[in-house]
Amino acid sequence: MTTFVLLPGAGGAAWYWHLVVPLLERAGHEAIAIDLPADDETKGIRAYADLVTTTIGERAVTLVAQSLGGFTAALVAQRARLERLVFVNAMIPRPNETATEWGKNTSSQEAREEAARRHGYSVEFEMDTYFFHDVPKDIAADAGKHERDEAKIAFSERVDFEAWPKIPIEVIVGKDDRLFPHDFQIRVARERLGKDVEIVEVSGGHLAALSHPKELVAKLLRP
Which of 41, 78, 91, 129 lies at a CB distance of 3.0 to 4.6 Å from 151, suitable for a disulfide? Predict the structure, then answer.
């Protein structure tokens, strides 16, 4: 049995994983979706890492980080017993980087806009275009009940870690992610984790846990 600890992206809602958790449990594993105090301006990445590390305790776990959750994962990886680290459409930081700097350093906006022009959807950021374009309508409608604004502190705190741990690290990339386009994610992953990092593709866009939960779980459970 594997214990999966699931970190959400901006907004911090454990609900993001609500379709994934039962699938992992049905397969005989433990799944813990973390709810973060994302709208609290007194708490940022370090507070998130404290909460996650406390939740993990002495267990050895597989840590799964979505989007902004990659920054929390960087700190948790220094303090908890991780058997495996999985990024899902995630922001992969360098030591001492902030989330705001990450966008500039990786040219994420330029990559997003170039992909939009190439594929013919709006360059202007809209939730429906970039987050919910492939999410079932009933689930997208329900998402509004769980939305929280991400506190600014989470984008300005530096992730003070020295290096990624010497454990298996995988990068799961949405084939149709519009926020962090497919080719952009692969480039950033190889630049920051090494050219031999394991990259796995999954159908769908940025919110793969909502749009393609069964396929995502299959990727998480692959040998």
Answer: 41
